[in-house]
Amino acid sequence: xxxxxxxxxxxxxxxxxxxxxxxxxxxxxxxxxxxxxxxxxxxxxxxxxxxxxxxxxxxxxxxxxxxxxxxxxxxxxxxxxxxxxxxxxxxxxxxxxxxxxxxxxxxxxxxxxxxxxxxxxxxxxxxxxxxxxxxxxxxxxxxxxxxxxxxxxxxxxxxxxxxxxxxxxxxxxxxxxxxxxxxxxxxxxxxxxxxxxxxxxxxxxxxxxxxxxxxxxxxxxxxxxxxxxxxxxxxxxxxxxxxxxxxxxxxxxxxxxxxxxxxxxxxxxxxxxxxxxxxxxxxxxxxxxxxxxxxxxxxxxxxxxxxxxxxxxxxxxxxxxxxxxxxxxxxxxxxxxxxxxxxxxxxxxxxxxxxxxxxxxxxxxxxxxxxxxxxxxxxxxxxxxxxxxxxxxxxxxxxxxxxxxxxxxxxxxxxxxxxxxxxxxxxxxxxxxxxxxxxxxxxxxxxxxxxxxxxxxxxxxxxxxxxxxxxxxxxxxxxxxxxxxxxxxxxxxxxxxxxxxxxxxxxxxxxxxxxxxxxxxxxxxxxxxxxxxxxxxxxxxxxx
Amino acid sequence: xxxxxxxxxxxxxxxxxxxxxxxxxxxxxxxxxxxxxxxxxxxxxxxxxxxxxxxxxxxxxxxxxxxxxxxxxxxxxxxxxxxxxxxxxxxxxxxxxxxxxxxxxxxxxxxxxxxxxxxxxxxxxxxxxxxxxxxxxxxxxxxxxxxxxxxxxxxxxxxxxxxxxxxxxxxxxxxxxxxxxxxxxxxxxxxxxxxxxxxxxxxxxxxxxxxxxxxxxxxxxxxxxxxxxxxxxxxxxxxxxxxxxxx
Lengths: 544, 247
What we know:
A: alpha/beta, Rossmann fold, 6-stranded mixed sheet, 18 helices, 20% strand, disordered N terminus, B: mainly alpha, 2 domains, ABC/ECF_trnsptr_transmembrane (chain B), Energy-coupling factor transport system permease protein (chain B), membrane (chain B), transmembrane (chain B), transmembrane helix (chain B)
């Protein structure tokens, strides 16, 4: 389906001045700390489309923060070296100048939405820049059409799914019509259809003369649509050049950094398309061959069996729907639209289920109902034969682990190591001053090694990069011998190396007899695994 | 555009604000429990039938204010000037007058809390900003500050619920003993505050990147009108205050 693109008149930019110029820029979050950006020099010309890529924790998001001026102006830290955006230093320029010059969309929509309603969110920027209401109206309408949110214009942003909120965030920046647009993992929580739409939109914007910077940890089709690629590693520029050339000449480096699907050819001759999983409709069954092997070899048949751990029979659910008692006592009942309709599913030991569906299809709702985070209707969901609606969260959490969509929301400790040890310490009922037993400590250190966080034991979980946070949240959940683990969008924002690690963790856990239910809009990452795939569409669940 | 199902949701923020101020003035004017009790009853009815608040939501909010109301009642009853009739419970001595006065003070707090709650529940923060900026000509930066606070209250509530859920899941069992419960409660509190600080910092950065505060004035896409009902509410509120005050 071709997107209807209205956004943006052709943009005129001052051809004499580079859009972005960085000269030996260094940035650290604290004085004396290891610099996250370490002597980066980079020039992006007006009208160029550049992909900035690198492994998790290499400084990509910090670079975006520096370009917007958020760092060091609001976010603190120490920056040295020269940085100009269209001739202005973002750290010291006037707010109005920067807002009209550069727009940045970050990975986490909740970090950038400031208003209650979708329409207000998109109008917020143009209103600040004092555009007349009729111009704002035109921009809001166009931006919402570009991201396919016209129908949700008057809804609260909190009613939207993660992908819907991200599209709102994109629209709010598009409405400012900045000549320079930076997208920092902006497609991470978008489903395939929304990513296709975004790609088409970016192509259109580029044709209209916008300068685009796409920041990503994966060289997928969206990243490789740019003509130029800059590879960051440990805060430094590891490679810079035409994307096609880098793919040919630096393929081993890109593979080593986890930016390419492991199945992609190791040497030169591959075309762009061979490296990049295409954005195609339909999720896993439409993914390129390269992505099929992301997860490595198929571990063989899982040893599932016995009575179901979790069984769902005829579950329907709507937000705000009345309880039985309320229905008896009220005559004004106006039942809202059902998010889930007549769901049937069962999960047994040793099974790995994947639940996929477009943004807003109800995947997270279903998982929250399973764990009792939402009040489940009676006699619809059973955990080991017991009605979930009659079980407390504590009773369910004794056997079921849950990995949140936002890793920060599940962190409970001040260091990475303590985060891993929290669950086992609780199970063993250790007092705060008691040390964790040796085997548990060894398990934690093994887990840290597995997820690439060795040597970061004493780091605050909040100071990790987005991908690292996600792996830590999964690892913490896998430290315990839960019977069922629910993972909500565990691949969002991770690079290919992170996704591979995640796959390995899941495979091991399933082999030990646990069951997994993974909610994802990127099932292609687990295409080589022995999984059962479910699709949630229009509130109805079907098995592939 | 969706029609509001409840009367107060359809009214503009300015007329409701004047009504809230009128209620506050009357609540301050009375210092006996009976009229304040009647006012609380009327406000409760308004919250349910005029603002569409469910009984469960209303009772949970009132439970919150009771946490502060109960100590206020006890301290006022024990420390206010003594009347003639004493009641004794061991070493504690209270007069009937001081009890009635404490009840009035506590009911006053309940009335003012509930009227503000109704206002927050039925007012779109963006409508509030538009009205205060365009009608009352207040500086938009300050009004946005108030509006953001209104927006942040439910977000903080969400944050608290998430933190509590996450800890329950991570703990995987019922907490044992007072110390563990306190430690979990403290952890939740820290998580909410840390989350709030992070959110405020992110929001401020995001607002600035979208040009907030660039100019002394700003425009608004949305227009908020005062309806005939709104004018009527303003006139009735002011007339009621003036009339009851003079009585």
